[in-house]
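Appendix B. Chain record.
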Amino acid sequence: MLNELILKKFLANYGLIVTDQEPMPLYGLKLLSVILERNAAFVIILKKLQLTAVLLDYFQAGHAKFNAFTVKIVRAMVASREISIEELLQHDIIAKLNKIM
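Structure tokens predicted for this chain:
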């Protein structure tokens, strides 16, 4: 029931949430980080909705939407192994991580 609600209400509109004006994206990132922390299977849905690229773009030092929640989301995405190494490399994940560190 809760998973269905998350799918229908939250993730269906997630693209709008993270591209909206502040503070909405911050709340969206925070909620998504908690969801993925509890159930990494939602990464598959993010990938189907083509939101993984958006989230990986936020994962860079200096980006307005880069924060601890973005780090948790990317960590969950990488740990889930639903996103291929090739796709991660296309988004320069290693270079971004080096700049963050």
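Further analysis of this model is presented in Appendix C.
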